[in-house]
Design goal:
It is a single chain. By secondary structure, this protein is mainly beta. The protein contains 9 helices and 49 strands. It has a 7-stranded antiparallel beta sheet with strand order 17-23-20-21-22-19-18. A 7-stranded antiparallel beta sheet has the order 30-31-32-33-34-35-36, with no helix packed on it. A hairpin with a 6-residue loop joins strand 7 and strand 8. It starts with a strand and ends in a 5-residue tail after the last strand. The relative contact order is 0.03.
Length: 850
């Protein structure tokens, strides 16, 4: 904003008095981030917003909208930008448009001083620009010009022209008879005053809300509108939302002992990763927490939801959906802070009044949990909402007003676990599955049947106690009826990745030590042990027959991906073996896998058999696909890639003790490759250095194939033979020890060429070895030369020459020039000049200058 200096001493500018217009003004506390709708106006990036209703007044001022965190505008970000009386014009909004003025006393420090605003002028209305534009009753102009009782009486007449009221001694009076007559059509909204007592059939109130309060009548509302009810006029309400129907009562007392589970104080905050650290925080993903101060970009008295990383670290999300998705809020600082974990963050049981404290310290609407909450009770029987509770513990249930949570302070289960009362308690809670509830209260079990029981304290008895027991008797002699002792089915419909558990069993055996700590499936049942699930066949039948399966996993239109899953820390090590036993089998116990064909016959079977006999350990595939066993005379193992007789497989065998272990490819095909491979940069190697040979003097390999660029390595790099593009490079000497052999070229490396028109005519032969037949001519003692063009020759190479037998004359011959791609031969005779045809042999020895 352009700054116009007014007074050098004061250091003030015109921008201090009046700020640039804002698009809209807030009407309540907001989150200072992201594009959003304020006072009916959708604000977008770079819009100016007058923020005046923050819970923390230091955050009030003019802010610029952003898709991320907002920033203060440049004309409202410094201590010299604002004074008492600074004015801001708001041009839009349903209720907040008009001129606003800073009412906070000087001095004002941005970020420290709580700044307040008051509206000083409503928006301009053209209808009020002049008196002529105001719609008035006939004759009112005269009354305005000369106000008198006569002028006013002229305006207050009935259809007959007789005045119904008059001025007497300057006061508006009633007819002199003092009796109201001819009151037909009297408007009740203004014509009747006073209240009619309840005893006389009235409400003792002048307004409907006060009448409901006097008569204790409920207000019918929705869960969304419940927080906004005026609790000075409404104390009882009925929520009509489908699946959440129920009575709510206003309780203005401090309810924090019910709604606050614990306080969590961070030990470190990382604004880069958004990770908050607190050892043993005891939160779970979706737990609601409320910061006790405005810090790190978090807003006071706002519920955030935990995203648990592990037992010591977590993040915060803005909604339960974000918590499940793992979308965390951005933390703007690293200051440690305290937050309170609230029991009912979704507000289904405790509903906080608009503007109230979310920790319940200022009261809350409390959902009636049972008949006693409404002043109705019957011993051992309670009907509340959609639930029925029976049993000796029913009365105790209602005494626990903190709810049905399965953990935490006040939980009914934990209360009874730690109770010192000596009585047999029992519960039977029959309730609705609440399938229509899309956001049930976190930690609040919505169940069909809940059961609980506890033995008499201090009693030494063999009596058994069941939390839930079931019995089914099948007596039909025909038909396809199925008898179920108990049946569980859980169905997840649409929505997020909710975990579905058919049956969860949690067992605790306090103050009990197993008689025999060594686990053995051979042992009989020993009193004092702890079993998560104990399966026993036979039931109460006096003459039972053996049952088929302890556990049967079937296909009910969908298939399980895994039969049994064990958490890595779910099993403890056995004290005697130091093993974690996932499955224990008795002597010769079997684990079988099977399928059946359309006729019900076993198509194939695999099984393992365990025995205490030292030589009877089996893994068998009965069709020969894979089996290994320990028998007298050796070890046999077979691995097959399919189960057909012609399939290829790896065959390992030692036919008799002391014989070599064989690893061979076998199967129905005539030729089968056997491939060995390591991972990454690893290799196939012997168990120790220079320990074994590859092949032997009597059994040798036929061929060795190496990849392009392969290296043969001796003594860890002492000598290598390396392949590159058709060349073998030897890192050391190449020697021949054969008496009749040597080092040279083999067939294919050489060639022949015949000279043309004269003995000085050049020839071309691109070979490292060859024979040059010279032109037939008379010998001469005068030296002559010819060029051999050869692409195999480098300038650093050495050329070896000799004359093949058959020449008539005696010759001198030398290589006088070697160049890249050619060399020159110079020759002459030392005896004889007769005509002959010499043949010159040559070999190229490759050389380097470095």
């Amino acid at each position: 904003m352009t700054s116009i200096q007014i007074d050098r001493t004061d250091g003030l500018s015109s921008s201090t008095a009046i700020k640039g217009p804002c698009l809209v003004a807030t009407t309540a506390n907001i989150t200072l981030s992201g594009e959003q709708t304020i006072d009916g106006v959708a604000v977008v990036t770079d819009d100016r917003v007058l923020v005046k209703n923050q819970t923390a007044g230091v955050d009030n001022g003019i802010w610029k909208v952003s898709t991320g965190v907002w920033s203060r505008t440049k004309d409202f970000s410094g201590n010299r930008d604002v004074k008492t009386g600074t004015m801001v014009n708001v041009v839009g909004g349903t209720v907040g448009s008009g001129w606003w003025q800073v009412t906070t006393s000087d001095p004002i420090t941005i970020g420290t001083t709580s700044i307040a605003f008051a509206q000083v002028l409503q928006p301009y209305d053209a209808d009020l620009a002049s008196w002529a534009l105001v719609t008035r009753a006939a004759g009112f102009d005269t009354f305005t010009a000369t106000p008198s009782s006569a002028n006013l009486r002229a305006l207050m007449t009935d259809e007959s022209g007789t005045g119904l009221a008059y001025f007497q001694n300057g006061d508006l009076g009633t007819p002199s008879a003092g009796v109201a007559t001819n009151l037909t059509g009297l408007p009740l909204t203004t014509g009747v005053t006073g209240t009619l007592p309840i005893a006389n059939g009235g409400t003792n109130a002048t307004a409907a809300d006060a009448a409901r309060l006097n008569l204790v009548l409920p207000t019918y509302t929705t869960l969304a509108l419940l927080p906004g009810l005026d609790t000075t006029k409404d104390a009882l309400a009925y929520v009509t939302d489908f699946g959440q129907e129920g009575w709510f009562k206003w309780d203005g007392s401090d309810l924090s002992t019910r709604t606050v589970i614990q306080s969590v104080t961070s030990t470190s905050v990382d604004s880069g990763t958004e990770i908050i650290t607190k050892a043993g925080h005891l939160l779970s993903t979706g737990s609601g927490v409320v910061p006790t101060t405005t810090v790190n970009g978090l807003t006071l008295n706002t519920v955030y939801y935990a995203i648990v990383i592990d037992a010591n670290t977590f993040k915060l999300a803005a909604s339960p959906t974000d918590a499940i998705a793992g979308t965390a809020v951005n933390l703007t600082g690293t200051t440690n802070f305290t937050m309170k974990q609230v029991r009912d963050p979704l507000q289904r049981v405790y509903v906080i009044k608009t503007g109230g404290q979310l920790d319940g310290t200022a009261g809350a609407w409390v959902k009636a949990q049972g008949a006693q909450d409404l002043g109705i009770s019957t011993p051992n029987f309670h009907r509340f909402n959609d639930r029925l509770l029976l049993g000796l513990g029913a009365t105790g249930w209602m005494g626990d007003s903190s709810g049905m949570g399965s953990s935490g302070a006040g939980s009914w289960l934990l209360d009874e676990q730690g109770s010192g009362s000596a009585f047999n308690m029992s519960y039977l809670l029959v309730g609705s599955a609440l399938s229509s509830v899309t956001n049930p209260v976190a930690g609040f079990p919505h169940g069909g049947i809940l059961g609980a029981t506890r033995s008499l304290d201090g009693a030494d008895s063999q009596t058994s106690y069941w939390g839930v027991a079931g019995f089914s008797s099948g007596h039909a002699t025909s038909g396809s009826s199925v008898g179920w002792g108990g049946y569980f089915e859980g169905v997840k419909r649409s929505g997020s990745n909710t975990t579905m558990q058919g049956l969860e069993v949690e067992i605790t055996n306090l103050n009990s030590t197993p008689v025999n700590p060594v686990i053995s499936p051979e042992s009989t049942y020993v009193q004092g042990r702890t079993f998560g699930i104990f399966m026993a066949s036979g039931g109460s039948n006096a003459s039972p027959s053996d049952a088929d399966s302890a556990f049967f996993i079937g296909n009910n239109g969908a298939k399980f991906r895994t039969g049994l899953t064990f958490y890595s820390n779910g099993l403890t090590k056995d004290a005697s073996t130091n093993y974690q036993h996932a499955i224990l089998l008795p002597t010769k116990g079997r684990v079988e896998w099977y399928t059946s064909d359309a006729l019900g016959n076993y198509a194939w079977t695999q099984h393992s058999e365990v025995s205490n006999s030292a030589n009877s350990h089996y893994w068998i595939a009965q069709d020969g696909g894979f089996f290994m066993y320990n028998v007298s005379g050796g070890i046999y193992s077979r691995i097959s890639t399919n189960t057909s007789a012609s399939g290829n497989y790896v065959h390992t065998i030692a036919s008799n003790p002391g014989a070599a272990v064989q690893l061979v490819a076998a199967g129905g095909d005539t030729n089968i490759n056997l491939m060995l491979g390591a991972k990454g940069t690893g290799g196939v190697m012997p168990p120790s250095n220079d320990a074994f040979a590859l092949g032997s003097a009597t059994v040798s390999w036929s061929d060795l194939f190496l990849a392009s660029g392969g290296v043969i390595n001796w003594n860890n790099g002492n000598y290598t033979v390396t392949h590159t593009s058709g060349v073998l490079t030897f890192s050391g000497s190449v020697l021949s020890a054969g008496a009749t052999s040597g080092i040279g070229y083999a067939t294919g490396a050489g060639g022949t060429v015949t000279q043309g028109t004269s003995r000085t005519t050049g020839v071309t032969l691109n070979k490292v070895s060859g024979a040059i037949t010279m032109f037939t001519a008379a010998g001469s003692a005068t030296p002559a030369s010819f060029t051999v063009t050869n692409s195999a020759v480098a300038a650093t190479d050495t050329i070896i020459l000799n004359i093949k037998s058959g020449a008539t004359n005696t010759y001198f011959y030398f290589v006088t020039t070697v160049a890249a791609g050619s060399f020159v031969i110079t020759f002459w005779t030392t005896g004889g000049t007769s005509s002959d045809t010499p043949v010159i042999n040559f070999n190229v020895i490759k050389g380097v200058a470095a």
